[in-house]
Amino acid sequence: MERKWWHKKVAYQIYPKSFYDTNGDGIGDLPGIIEKLDELKALGIDIIWLSPVYASPLADQGYDISDYRNIDPRFGTMDDMDRLLAEAKKRDMYIVMDLVVNHCSDEHEWFRRACEDPDGKYGKYFYIETVKDGKFPCNWRSYFGGPVWEKLPGHEDKYYLHVFHKKQPDLNWENPEVREEIYDMVNWWLDKGLAGFRIDAIINIKKALPFKDYPADRPDGLTSIGNMLRDAKGVGEFLGELRDRCFAPHEAFTVGEVFNEKAEEIPDFIGDSGYFSTMFDFAPTVFGQSGKGWHENADITPDEYRDCVFNTQKKIGEIGFISNIIENHDEPRGVSRYIPDGDQCEDSKKTLATGYFFLKGLPWIYQGQEIGMENKKFTSIEEVDDISSLDAYKVALADGVTEERALYALGKLSRDNARTPYQWDDTVNAGFGTGMPWLPVNPNYTEINLAAQKADPDSVYNYYKKLIALRKDPAYAETLVWGEMIPVRQDLHDIMAYYRKGENQTLLVVAAFGNENKVLPLPVKPKKILLSTLAGGKEPEFVETKDGWEAVLDGYLAFVAEL
């Protein structure tokens, strides 16, 4: 594996709408991000990914882009964007934006022109089909529910394809003119000084054509879009072209949102000449999913979480670098998902952080994760904003589930959980801004907030600072960044342990879940404890046995040691 500059970095995702509001309109903005850059630098962040701030009607919170070369006024101006790039550069930080090119907004100029002349140039930018007798070209279900076909405005017999929201018409990547438009736009941003992109929903750009039906998997007569994706062949031709025309000439950093990749495809995606620099590990996030809907999803246990990430580590091996997360803008809060209900506390949050952070790969932190922000409890469907959550609620009710159980499922899995405003302090609106936030703050902000945690040396926030500092420590960075990852006693319940092994150094990472006491057998006693979740810098206990040593793990406890 060729070593890259970004391997040693730590990355952070900002959801701009909920980060920091400087003008009192209830929406976070680019000036707010600029104002908080020093906070992120102090934490130890190097790479910042911004969820979309492009011009958009926000039907899907900015992932429906109406102008790729403009900033939405709600977030600021292009001058603000240029200033952010300049201020980040001063701090040796890198800005990454979302690249959303499977679809655009139905308010984009291209789609408006397609509506005016479906048979003309811009009609061919999309998938527009003539529908007779109400029979759609295929029975695919969109990610947000309902058929992927919607009537083209102004035309009774023509429909367009949208695999996401109906206001997100899919771009036709089979059309070379579309690809040229996209490459020109991507290069425009990279020339401006952007470090790279997080590539959104990119596997969807390749459709299995011609359109056809698949067996229905719900009473609606539709089928999961995943069935089509399994049949779609040749996405690599598009991705290789995108790399060669845009990413490679700029030496851009890119991270792909890739689901359902096959093991044999990993070198193509993130090998030395891969389409992307890295891609996210979604194995734990998709675990337990049910085709029936969120209300049938199974919770993931700490053992299952461990096995998911260990399997990914084995699958990736030395091929490339994976990106490790516990949450993002599309997922619930990691501490509410991977820590059993009722066990959320500072010790358990630090334990989860330790277990994922030192896996081989690039560690990502999502805004608020570093202070242990939790899911918000919903008491009514009126409190929910997210379109995918609203669809999941409808699906559950249609399946005969009670409103109470359907709402419980949303409380566990809704994307709104990660989108509540950042909890800066215990003042009104959690210090997010003076205006009424676009999404209500989590009521627990008076207990969980950055200001309080900065003042507490044993807080989750200060523990994350230690995690980052250790990964960057010159004495251990060679091992923690590039060293081999070797699982330890994967058979033990509620224990996630692994070695990071370098040429002349072996480090042990241990994360013990659950409240009961347990022990981890070790061949030797650690030479040095580098980090521990125990308050006040206290070290864990080690007991000598006839076969070696045992680490005594009392409840939620994690540590990193040099052997």
List the helices and strands and how they pair.
Layout: E1 11-14, H1 30-35, H2 37-43, E2 47-50, E3 54-55, E4 67-71, H3 78-90, E5 94-99, H4 109-116, E6 128-130, E7 149-151, E8 158-161, H5 176-192, E9 196-199, H6 225-231, H7 235-250, E10 253-256, H8 266-270, E11 278-280, H9 283-286, H10 302-316, E12 321-324, H11 334-337, H12 346-357, E13 362-366, H13 387-398, H14 403-413, H15 450-454, H16 460-472, H17 477-482, E14 484-488, E15 495-501, E16 506-512, E17 517-522, E18 528-532, E19 541-545, E20 548-554, E21 557-562
Parallel strand pairs: 1-2, 1-13, 2-5, 5-9, 9-10, 10-11, 11-12, 12-13
Antiparallel strand pairs: 3-4, 6-8, 7-8, 14-15, 15-16, 16-21, 17-20, 18-21, 19-20
Helix pairs in contact: 5-7, 12-16, 13-14
Structure commentary:
The strands form 5 sheets. Strands 1-2-5-9-10-11-12-13 form an 8-stranded parallel β-barrel. Strands 14-15-16-21-18 form a 5-stranded antiparallel β-sheet. The mean pLDDT is 97. The chain has 563 residues and is an alpha/beta fold. The relative contact order is 0.10. It is built from 17 helices and 21 strands. It is globular. Helix 5 runs parallel beside helix 7, helix 12 packs parallel to helix 16 and helix 13 runs antiparallel to helix 14.
